[in-house]
């Protein structure tokens, strides 16, 4: 691998959580993973394998127990600049209108009101939200529209790295397919580095340059996806690649979803 092109790197990263009921539980253990600049990497794994913890470490929202996380060659010990994050729920502020939610990162950064409003409007248009929606509150929107607002909020500060935690899991399949297509259009235009967490094999194959399979708090497979874009989900090449990834996933993960790696001498339970 060309390390000069790496923009996010996990070096032998471990993350342990300690609780009175469950003892020491490793959400990540000896994780090595690197993402190249401009690459769309999907991390695929069952619930409870450490995918969300991985993103939180890259975002500087948590710190590793051991090892180190690097963004642009610098160790992450606080939220780094130029990194945006989208969660599964969107985490919109219910008391703010759409325009205010989208502009939140700019407001925190001290951008003036007129400029942040103009930039937020431009990004809302890019994620295909009509102008009349900007004064709506989150509860007045569909699930797909709320996720578009969450994506717009992450994109407004123009991040070079985008972390996405199962952002389309809560919407219906047609909406999910639309959002996936729109994400690829945005990525093709801006070429951010995207680290995208999912438990959907089809979603990973449709989106990714490469798929990293995780289980038991570790990365166990790194699979390049060489299907040309735009990808047709019904094409022989796509279906063949989908089958290959599914076989690799089954080989490494099987039916072991949701199991934690519990430190010796502690009680069991699923990790955070």
Largest sheet: 6 strands, mixed
- Kindly state the number of beta strands: 11
CATH class of the largest domain: Alpha Beta
Order of helices and strands: EEEHEEEHHHHEHEHEEHE
Q: Which CATH architecture of the largest domain is right?
A: 3-Layer(aba) Sandwich
Which residues form runs of ≥5 with pLDDT under 50?
A: 257-272
Could you tell me the strand content as a percent range?
25-35%
Describe the structure.
With 272 residues, the chain is α/β, with parallel strands linked by helices. The protein has two domains: 3-82 and 159-262, P-loop containing nucleotide triphosphate hydrolases (Rossmann fold), CATH 3.40.50; 93-158. The protein has helices spanning 51-58, 98-102, 104-108, 113-126, 143-155, 173-190, 201-207, 236-252, and strands at residues 6-19, 23-36, 40-44, 66-71, 74-75, 83-86, 161-165, 193-198, 210-215, 218-224, 261-262. The strands form two sheets. It has a six-stranded mixed β-sheet with strand order 6-7-8-3-9-10, with helices on both faces. A five-stranded antiparallel β-sheet has the order 5-4-1-2-11. A hairpin with a 2-residue loop joins strand 9 and strand 10 (218-224). Helix 7 (201-207) packs across helix 8 (236-252). It is globular. Residues 257-272 have low confidence and may be disordered.
């Amino acid at each position: 691998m060309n390390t000069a092109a790496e923009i996010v790197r996990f070096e032998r990263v471990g993350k342990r959580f300690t609780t009175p009921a469950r003892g020491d539980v490793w959400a990540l253990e000896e994780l090595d993973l690197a993402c190249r600049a401009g690459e769309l990497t999907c991390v695929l794994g069952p619930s409870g394998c450490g995918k969300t913890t991985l993103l939180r470490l890259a975002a500087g929202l948590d710190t590793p127990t051991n090892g180190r996380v690097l963004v642009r060659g610098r160790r992450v010990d606080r939220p780094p600049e130029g990194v945006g994050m989208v969660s599964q729920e969107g985490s919109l502020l219910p008391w703010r209108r759409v325009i205010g939610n989208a502009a939140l990162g700019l407001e925190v950064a001290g951008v003036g009101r007129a400029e942040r409003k103009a930039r937020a409007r431009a990004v809302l248009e890019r994620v295909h939200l009509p102008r009349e929606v900007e004064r709506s509150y989150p509860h007045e929107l569909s699930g797909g529209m709320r996720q578009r607002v969450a994506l717009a909020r992450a994109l407004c500060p123009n991040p070079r790295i985008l972390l996405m935690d199962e952002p389309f899991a809560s919407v219906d399949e047609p909406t999910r397919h639309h959002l996936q297509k729109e994400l690829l259009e945005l990525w093709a235009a801006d070429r951010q580095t995207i680290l995208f967490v999912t438990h959907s094999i089809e979603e990973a194959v449709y989106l990714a340059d490469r798929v990293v399979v995780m289980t038991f708090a570790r990365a166990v497979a790194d699979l390049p996806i060489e299907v040309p874009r735009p990808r047709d989900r019904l094409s022989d090449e796509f279906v063949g690649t989908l089958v290959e990834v599914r076989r690799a996933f089954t080989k490494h993960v099987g039916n072991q979803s949701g199991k934690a790696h519990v430190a010796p001498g502690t009680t069991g339970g699923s990790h955070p």
